[in-house]
């Protein structure tokens, strides 16, 4: 584990095979306020930079075992933002220049004066400070130009504001996220926001719906394959996990992922590596997984459809998107937003729906959530009469539940048992609709136990 703690004192690693040189540099640098660590060869230095973070590395060019250039190449991934300065003796300047091409900041020629070393370090420090300021300014400009990534999410309700606040926090941690919520509540929109406002925000956002790819294609789509892996594999193909290397992958409907794929995904999360079909060796990748589900994964775990270990892995940072019926304050804002969107798209100027329609919309249970609202507004614009919103697009289906009980007992049925079953089936149906398929909440509304609801669902084939 790297120690990346903030340090006010600058840390420096001196790599030189000459003991006297290490000693002289150590004394001189410590006297000037640096915290010095020494390594007598490149291999030992690689080990050190893997474990610790250094602000500067002063590295001799010519050394036994591996030379300074080889050290630079082999330690590249571990050096991070360390500034490397090469020390070259007579005859190794060429190599020092090569090292600069490979990423070293500067070189100083041996023998050098103490001031020369200090001046080079000072220059490098100033450059680092300028770079950091530049990064900060770029970030501010980017945020000003593009916003934080959550602007497309419309809503003024306390619920959605809280969700966005949580999402903004979550975005800063480079960990997997599980986003739950009924279909159409905006899980993908929030995932995009998390990606955009994260450190990976400049990269392309990748998304896959696990339920929409046939099982037999899923593995090659996600993990890729090498030429000859199976009949028809006439070239290497990168999977989406590899394409998303360095970026974010949104896995929608993760609950639909077949069990064998769940094992493979767990490996991605644990080992940070993928194994393309037919490949001899695994490949290291660095992808941030944002998974979403409209199912209750705890239930899927209990039913044996979802691996518990994968669930725990994903369930570290979670975000729940409340259904639209639980944040009805958003309805008028969303309605205006979609009206503007489709007026712009179709070049129309359809007016906001008149009358007490908003009241009715607020009372409706919105099983398809924001997506349903968007579709209804779009239809209202398309079928508008002049500038008058087509009201039937909003009203259709709104009052279905109010038209009588909707429960039909066959004429002449005298068995109380059978009538009770019909009634039970209908009420369970209704409760499941009301909770968007969430069985534990449905059981609560129905005032029966969860296992009893599962039994009835099975019995009635719901
Ligand atoms: N708060 C919101 N503001 C604006 N548009 C929204 C909002 N929430 C959802 N939408 C829109 O509604 C549609 C559905 O959203 P999205 O695809 O993000 O939902 P989802 O929860 O991922 O759905 P599913 O589970 O079915 O994939 C999209 O067109 C999205 O842009």
TrEMBL record:
PROSITE patterns: RESPONSE_REGULATORY (PS50110), SIGMA54_INTERACT_1 (PS00675), SIGMA54_INTERACT_3 (PS00688), SIGMA54_INTERACT_4 (PS50045). The keyword DNA-binding does not apply. It comes from the Bacteria. Keywords: ATP-binding, Nucleotide-binding, Phosphoprotein, Transcription, Transcription regulation, Two-component regulatory system. The keyword ATP-binding applies. GO terms for molecular function: ATP binding; sequence-specific DNA binding. Signal peptide: none annotated. CDD domains: AAA. GO terms for biological process: phosphorelay signal transduction system; regulation of DNA-templated transcription. Residues 11-125 form the Response regulatory domain. It holds the Pfam family AAA_lid_14. InterPro entries: AAA+_ATPase, AAA_lid_NorR, HTH_Fis, Sig_transdc_resp-reg_receiver, Sigma_54_int, Sigma_54_int_dom_ATP-bd_1, Sigma_54_int_dom_CS. The modification 4-aspartylphosphate is found at residue 60. Residues 153-382 form the Sigma-54 factor interaction domain. This is Acetoacetate metabolism regulatory protein AtoC.
